């Protein structure tokens, strides 16, 4: 027997329709790419998103066509998301920090027909445009006054493009499993892979993100997503915020400490979300200028492990820290570290111990850890294994790739190595390809990095496994010191001694001027492995 409830497909544009009806005057504030602060609201975003759909339709775009956006977090970008998805086209967010050739590869693979982009990226796109045959038109997200001379095909200023539409357009209802958006993983190992979100997965993911124990916002809060709309589905914030009527503050192209601080302060932001690198810049700026953020309630931090020293700095400011883990393939929220009983009342170092974990999943994400043969491992907080996940907002395949990516129970292998404890808290110990295999045992590179960055002179640390004649691999600690600070190999090793098992201690420390990063701010270990390819440990006896 079937239930007798309405057939109401979960469609992304219903979110902005709801926002326009119920929270129409709620503000969306942006530091525009042109410079000035711009203010709009959900009603106007909805109305202009309809014009985007109308302009796309006029340009011959049909249901299922792919439209690329290469753009910062701005109100215009948000209008494009809803305008593209609302008419049943697919919003393909492209990460502008990738190498231009990779961008061309991705756009070709997706066969994008129109590219919507910011002024910032026009020169880069001009250089690669002849490699992207599927693109019929470029829309520059600006007005006529700021529109540059450009060789880009059929280029038009966004305000002219939608300005010539009257907005007399209606979004239709269709199957909630229709593709809504796509985002390629950064492809640090092999070709990038296209993750294809559906309307249903995005709406369900927004509902997951809306819980108090997830992003933690409501209609009376203000969210500043430093996490870009082009990275991992903007952590769901582009759907979650309008679905609740949360005020949005969009940072545009300026993500440095001073600019982010200024917006957090002047817009009295209560919640913000981003990767650790961004928070490092903010904290440094605040401490060197002796600044405070009395309105800030919560910092959501993910993408890489959040260092304990950073958690402590926010906690001491009276700001709640929410360490999150996830990935593009998971829409992306996987786990969040909130203090559930029996940890709610913990204090001091014990509290930091829990906040530093990657956390437990919201309803809608299931996890397991397994050994290499797929056998389930215990949730004892100690045993580590391959972390696998399933849920309605988790990928089941990549776009135009035939390989099966699920195991026999329908779980997706995240490529991360983790422990899970009896309370369901997960802790990432490594990427499976970064884990150091020493004498048949695993050493967690992340644990060593977290420990090394706690040394006061260390700005950033990376640990890689280097071949060792006896142990197969041993850890090499690579350190970038803070400007003007000094520390020797011995100082750092001494600092780590006694805090980890003896056999986990790095065999050597190498000092570098800079640690390379991926386009999404993660340590680029492939480049470090290449850099240290000919390195051998001073003490390695054959
Ligand atoms: P990309 O691979 O494009 O940089 P993703 O966001 O998809 O972007 O990366 C997902 C990976 O990032 C995860 O599989 C995990 O290795 C890492 N990651 C994300 N959040 C955390 C975290 N809180 N702690 C440690 N690693 C994290």
Features:
542 residues; Rossmann fold; Luciferase, domain 3; GMP Synthetase, Chain A, domain 3; 3 domains; globular; binds adenosine-5'-diphosphate
Give your account of this protein's structure.
The chain is α/β, with parallel strands linked by helices and 542 residues long. The protein has 15 helices and 24 strands. It has 3 domains: 12-254, 3-Layer(aba) Sandwich (Rossmann fold), CATH 3.40.50.12780; 366-431, Luciferase, Domain 3 (Luciferase, domain 3), CATH 2.30.38.10; 436-531, ANL, C-terminal domain (GMP Synthetase, Chain A, domain 3). α1 (12-22) crosses α2, α2 crosses α3 and α9 packs across α10. 27% of the residues lie in helices and 23% in strands. The strands form 5 sheets. The protein has an 8-stranded mixed sheet with strand order 2-1-11-10-12-13-14-15, sandwiched between helices. Strands 7-6-5-3-4-8-9 form a 7-stranded mixed sheet, with helices on both faces. A 4-stranded antiparallel sheet has the order 16-17-18-19. The model has no long low-confidence stretch (mean pLDDT 95). Bound molecules: adenosine-5'-diphosphate. Residues 185-186, 232, 302-305, 323-328, 332, 358, 414-416, 428, 431, 518, 520, 522 line the site of adenosine-5'-diphosphate.
- The Cα radius of gyration reads 24 Å
Mean pLDDT: 95
> What proportion of the residues form beta strands (DSSP E)?
15-25%
Low-confidence stretches: none
What ions, cofactors and ligands are bound? adenosine-5'-diphosphate
Tell me the strand order in the biggest sheet. Answer: 2-1-11-10-12-13-14-15
**Number of E strands:** 24
- CATH superfamily annotation of the largest domain: ANL, N-terminal domain
Number of domains: 3
Question: What overall form do the CA principal axes indicate?
Answer: globular
Straight-line distance between termini: 71 Å
Biggest sheet layout? 8 strands, mixed
Architecture per CATH nomenclature, i.e. the level-2 architecture of the largest domain: 3-Layer(aba) Sandwich
Q: With helices defined by DSSP (H or I, 4 residues minimum), what is the helix count?
A: 15
CATH topology name of the largest domain, in short, is Rossmann fold
Helix content: 25-40%
Global structural class: alpha/beta
């Amino acid at each position: 027997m079937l239930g007798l409830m309405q057939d109401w497909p979960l469609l992304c544009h219903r979110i902005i329709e709801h926002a326009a009806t119920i929270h129409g005057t709620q503000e969306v504030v942006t530091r525009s790419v042109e410079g000035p602060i711009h203010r709009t609201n959900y009603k106007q975003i909805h109305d202009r998103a309809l014009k985007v759909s109308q302009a796309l339709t006029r340009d011959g775009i049909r249901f299922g066509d792919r439209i690329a956006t290469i753009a910062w977090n701005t109100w215009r970008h948000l209008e494009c998301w809803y305008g593209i998805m609302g008419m049943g086209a697919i919003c393909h967010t492209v990460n502008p920090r990738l190498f231009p050739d990779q961008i061309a590869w991705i756009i070709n693979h997706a066969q994008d027909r129109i590219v919507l982009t910011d002024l910032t990226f026009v020169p880069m796109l001009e250089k690669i445009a002849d490699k992207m045959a599927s693109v019929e038109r470029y829309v520059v997200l600006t007005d006529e006054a700021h529109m540059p001379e450009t060789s880009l095909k059929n280029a038009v200023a966004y305000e002219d493009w939608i300005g010539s539409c009257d907005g007399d357009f209606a979004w239709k209802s269709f199957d909630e499993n229709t593709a809504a958006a796509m985002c390629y993983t950064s492809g640090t190992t092999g070709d990038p892979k296209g993750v294809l979100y559906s309307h249903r997965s995005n709406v369900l993911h927004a509902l997951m993100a809306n819980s108090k124990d997830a992003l933690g916002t409501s209609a009376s809060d203000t969210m500043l997503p430093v996490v870009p709309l082009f990275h991992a589905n903007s952590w769901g914030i582009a759907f979650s915020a309008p679905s609740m009527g949360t005020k949005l503050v969009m940072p545009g192209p300026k993500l440095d400490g001073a600019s982010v601080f200024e917006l957090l302060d002047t817009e009295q932001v209560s919640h913000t979300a981003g990767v650790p690198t961004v928070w490092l810049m903010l904290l440094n700026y605040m401490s060197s200028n002796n600044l405070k953020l009395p309105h800030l309630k919560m910092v959501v931090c993910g993408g890489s492990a959040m260092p304990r020293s950073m958690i402590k700095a926010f906690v001491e400011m009276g700001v709640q820290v929410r360490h999150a883990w996830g990935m593009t393939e998971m829409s992306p929220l996987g786990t969040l570290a909130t203090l559930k009983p029996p940890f709610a009342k913990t204090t001091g170092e014990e509290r930091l111990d829990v906040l530093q974990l990657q956390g437990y999943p919201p309803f809608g994400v299931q996890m397991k850890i397994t050994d290499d043969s797929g056998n389930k491992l215990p949730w004892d907080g100690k045993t580590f294994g391959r972390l696998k996940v399933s849920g309605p907002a988790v990928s089941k395949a990549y776009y135009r790739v035939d390989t099966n990516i699920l195991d026999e129970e329908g779980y997706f292998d995240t490529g991360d190595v983790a422990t899970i404890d009896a309370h369901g808290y997960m802790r990432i110990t490594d990427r499976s390809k970064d884990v150091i295999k020493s004498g048949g045992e695993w050493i967690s590179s992340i644990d060593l990095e977290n420990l090394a960055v706690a040394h006061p002179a260390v700005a950033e640390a990376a640990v890689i496994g280097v071949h060792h004649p006896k142990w197969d691999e041993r850890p090499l600690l690579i350190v970038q010191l803070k400007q003007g600070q000094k520390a020797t190999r011995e100082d750092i090793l001494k600092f780590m001694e006694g805090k980890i098992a003896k056999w986990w201690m790095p065999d050597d420390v190498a000092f570098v001027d800079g640690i390379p990063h991926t386009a999404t701010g993660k340590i680029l270990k492939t480049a470090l492995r290449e850099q240290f390819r000919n390195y051998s440990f001073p003490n390695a006896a054959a």
